[in-house]
Specification:
The protein has 15 helices and 14 strands. It is about 40% helix and about 20% strand. An eight-stranded mixed sheet has the order 5-4-3-2-1-6-8-7, with helices on both faces. The protein has a six-stranded mixed sheet with strand order 11-10-9-12-14-13, with helices on both faces. The longest helix has 23 residues, at about 295-320. The model has no long low-confidence stretch (mean pLDDT about 95). It is an alpha/beta fold. It has two domains: about 1-140, ATPase, nucleotide binding domain (Nucleotidyltransferase, domain 5, 2-Layer Sandwich); about 190-380, ATPase, nucleotide binding domain (Nucleotidyltransferase, domain 5), CATH 3.30.420.40. Strand 13 (about 365) and strand 14 form a beta hairpin.
Length: about 400
């Protein structure tokens, strides 16, 4: 079975075309910088075998990116037999993968707004595929499933209990598919059984980002909460915020919820701080211009890194004794400066980074910790798409 997995980020669409159950990769790639908010043009990086080809083009929407990806596959005579979709937030309606049917699609609309930057683009792509490729079976795989092991005392917000129960308000956690995959890989590298592995997983993407505390192979905390807006400073999301600020915005904008949601999810984070780009790589790339912008670039980077360091310290305590810190996704895998600053001055926790290994890292997975460091610092390429393909194949096989 040839399965095309679509992983919609807020500003990207990663894809992987695999033959299952052999797990042979036919092609893979990523549509990057979708939308008009970065200083560089959008592109698709398409890989077949060991060859990467870059196609620069206008990619205003995820649907447009998907059609361009299908065109690239069709040129080689390749067609999928099934589609798998990463859906960020399943709420309490979805805790397992689901085959897309009219009933399931209707239920997806009920969780659409729980992850404003991810669920809408994923659900809209599912709808597009239903319309244009109706013969292809589709399966939705939910990012929140891995975090069902977060204990109740960590999951519940300190709101009136009756309100919490009525509205199903709780911490759900996100990036679960990625955290699960890289933690399993890191445990193998460390030679520790998953059931005894303690780690802090850092999923630092070009759009969204979260940290996850792992105890005995299970998620016990995640920086994201009821929605993916909580936690770290992200590309356009503010992360942690005093709720009273939202009340102030409500008063300022006469209760215009759509406007406030747009501010918090689409105009804040790196974009809001820098006033120039939603991509932290742009800030790093134009570092020399920081002083000419009244220090906005420098301040943006400081705030971005401070938030990560704060949570790293907390999670090293929660998951103690931690055996590894894991960096993954676009920023975590590729930006050595971020890894360096995040791990600096952490010897108290047993975190000792080797700066030379960090700077010169080329192949993944890689260990950038010093020899003898009590906590290993691992850089592991995430493969959410393979993890999703496994679940898609299993789900469709069981249903047939």
């Amino acid at each position: 079975m040839n399965i095309l997995v679509c992983n919609c980020g807020s500003s990207s669409l990663k894809y992987r075309f695999l033959t299952m159950p052999e797990e042979d990769e036919i092609a893979s790639g990523e549509a990057q910088r979708i939308g008009p908010v970065t200083s560089e043009s959008a592109r698709i990086v398409h890989r077949e075998g060991d060859r990467d080809t870059v196609f620069s083009m206008d990619l205003p929407t995820h649907q447009k990116a998907f059609h361009e990806i299908l065109k690239l596959l069709a040129k080689k005579g390749k067609r999928p037999d099934a589609l798998g979709h990463r859906v960020a937030h399943g709420g309490r309606l979805f805790e397992q993968p689901a085959v897309i049917t009219p009933t399931v699609f209707e239920a997806l609309q009920q969780v659409r707004d729980l992850a404003p930057l991810h669920n809408p683009v994923a659900i809209d792509l599912i709808e597009e595929c239903q319309t244009r490729y109706a013969s292809l079976p589709q399966v939705a795989v939910f990012d929140t499933a891995f975090h069902t092991t977060i204990p109740e005392h960590a999951r519940q917000y300190a709101l009136p209990s009756d309100l919490v129960q009525e509205l199903n308000i709780r911490k759900y956690g996100f990036h679960g598919t990625s955290h699960r995959y890289v933690v399993e890989e890191a445990a193998k590298i460390a030679g520790i059984p998953m059931a005894k592995f303690n780690a802090v997983s850092c999923h630092l993407g070009s759009g969204g980002a979260s940290l996850c505390a792992i105890s005995n192979g299970r998620s016990i905390e995640n920086t994201m909460g009821y929605t993916p807006i909580q936690g770290l400073v992200m590309s356009t999301r503010c992360g942690d915020l005093d709720p009273a600020i939202v009340l102030k915005l409500l008063a300022l904008y006469s209760g215009d919820m759509d406007r406030i949601e747009d501010i918090l999810n689409r105009r804040s984070g790196v974009l809001g701080l820098s006033g120039a780009s939603a991509d932290i790589r742009d800030i790093l790339g134009d570092w020399d211009a920081a002083t000419s912008r009244d220090g906005r670039f420098q301040k943006t980077l400081q705030i971005y890194l401070w938030r990560i360091r704060k949570y790293i310290g907390a999670y090293l305590t929660l998951a103690s004794p931690v055996q590894a810190i894991i960096f993954t996704d676009t920023i975590g895998e590729n930006v050595s400066l971020v890894r360096s600053v995040v791990c600096a001055n952490q010897k108290f926790f047993g975190v000792c980074i080797d700066e030379k290994r960090n700077r010169e890292l080329e192949q993944l997975p890689g260990d950038i910790s010093q020899d003898g460091s009590p906590v290993r610092i691992l850089v592991v390429a995430t493969n959410e798409e393979l993890a999703i393909a496994r679940q898609v194949f299993k789900t469709l096989t069981l249903n047939n």
